[in-house]
Amino acid sequence: MNTTTVIAIHGGAGTIVRASLSPEDEARYHTALRDILLAGQRVLADGASALDAVTEAVRLLEDCPLFNAGHGAVLTADGTHELDASIMDGRTLDAGAVCCVKRVRNPVLAARCVLERSDHVLFAGDGAEAFAAAHGLELVDPAYFRTDARHRQWQLAREQQRAMLDHDGATLAASAPKDAGSNVRSEAPLPHEPIDPNRKFGTVGAVALDAHGHLAAATSTGGITNKRIGRVGDSPLIGAGCYADDATCAVSSTGSGEMFIRMVAAYDVAAQMAYRGVSLEEAAADVVMNRLPRIDGRGGLIAVDAKGNVTLPFNTEGMYRGFARAGAEPVTAIYR
Ligand code: ASP
């Protein structure tokens, strides 16, 4: 079999603040998305698996401070980081996930390790970190995940005593000075974010179809700003934040995690294709535009099927997203 490969990625969904947007700021997001799509495209062009392509794309998204996963992840109510990730292989239905990890540099690599080297699917907290360390994955000082921008965002959320999902605060000012006495990692400030960071669901994810006709999906997140310690969203839950089955599709979600869990959102796309016989696009649109809004679920998802169809629906004003087919220029977008 020699399928035309395709990879799609997302970097979170949310409310757009057009007033805060300069062309340069917007360009930074497009460039980051494009570079990561090109990297994923190269993995697939080399004949590697969809599983390898989504692992690499999400690893790069985790390392990019523009997105809420890995370095640049949002902070909990205690000012710490608790990261979640998952991955699924549509060929075998093997899956791996970690949640509430504080020191694993790339949670998606830990999830992949769980998939490949354990009989389990989900490891949490200290046990997940011990498992990752035992398999040679890099652990970092938690300060590695912090950025000035996320710290200011967290302070804003604390002042308003809200978690970020229904926060109405203003867009981060990229030029705001670093707080005196802060031990936040020093680096160039983030640009104004095209999507209001206070109303953004910043999970990252990837889905891919490889040259052998196999599908895979991966998702990674810092969760939601000012979340309670120990809170786990949909991202590390197979079926809610991530799902892949060669028989139907591969899906990665982003949005209000509690609602995506209650709607079993990612699996529902696959289930609708299998049981109702509808197309990928119709199934995904039903989940995002009809079912999630019934319980105020906000966000979106990216999905690909075994024929190479791609759909990227969202019910918020924007979603950082893109896809790249073999031999074609990557397509990236932010707004509706
Ligand atoms: N779904 C993620 C969570 O609830 C948040 C996000 O997508 O940004 O943890």
From TrEMBL:
User: Can you cite a GO biological process for this protein?
Assistant: proteolysis
Q: Which Pfam families match?
A: Asparaginase_2
Give me the ranges of the annotated region Disordered: 174-198
Q: Where is this site: Cleavage?
A: 202-203
What InterPro entries does the record point to? Ntn_hydrolases_N (IPR029055), Peptidase_T2 (IPR000246)
> Which residues take part in binding substrate?
231-234, 254-257
Top-rank taxon of the source lineage equals Bacteria
User: Under the GO molecular function aspect, what terms does this record hold?
Assistant: hydrolase activity, acting on carbon-nitrogen (but not peptide) bonds, in linear amides; peptidase activity
The active site annotation covers: 203
Q: Which UniProt keywords are present, listed alphabetically?
A: Autocatalytic cleavage, Hydrolase, Protease
> Known Gene3D superfamilies for this protein?
(Glycosyl)asparaginase
> What name does UniProt use for this protein?
Isoaspartyl peptidase
Organism of derivation: Paraburkholderia rhizosphaerae
